[in-house]
């Protein structure tokens, strides 16, 4: 059992309050996931010729500026560094794959949590309240955010097994449920070049989306394919640069509730996670239909 929450702001005047609005939502899911928690927040977008990487390391005092200096020397460009607990957000004008290679060669113990122009993924083992405080979630700004609280079942309690999972540039996935065909799918996807770091079945779902997107599918098409190809029970929320998508398996075994007002669209595994949102008493509320892909965002 896990908890999923998401919030997309339709009213840009609320962007400075995104973290403050979202913090009680993810904390409300503690009962569904006390082992670890994480979130992917979108905002502070860089230009088309730049990338933004979120990195984490076990050492809270890791010398990120040493890495930044190497990247500046290698790519001949300035690198900005924002340090947040044991994480850092780096921005630079370069291509993703060469940067990944430099980071791996510099220190293989650095974990690349996300790459894109807008996304930042932060996650850790522990209670959601503690993780929100650790990364100063309440002070964060942005356009939209998805989060997850995990109760470990099929794999151990580790930061690697916590959600969200990155699925590509500015893309991530959070999952509530379990997949029955993940071992077979893992083997098939590995043959297609998808790399896995954990035994977590949710990472297989993320890897499936990565593969479909590499093959040219849209996010909606990839999720429609997931409905057909993934066996088991699931509710997925997928974050994109422009918004987020929600889909439940054809039986809709795992709970989900949506809320929409003129100011926002929100989703959660349980209604009480939405109860602190402004104007929730007048929101349109519904359960997502089984086997249907929903998407909210720009464009």
From TrEMBL:
Region forming the signal peptide: none
Source organism, top-level taxon: Bacteria
Keyword Transferase (UniProt): yes
Domain Glutamine amidotransferase type-2, chain residue ranges per copy: 2-299
InterPro entries: GATase_2_dom, Ntn_hydrolases_N
Record's keyword terms, sorted: Glutamine amidotransferase, Transferase
Stretches of the chain forming a coiled coil according to its record: none
Protein name, entry field: Glutamine amidotransferase family protein
Species of origin: Thiomicrorhabdus heinhorstiae
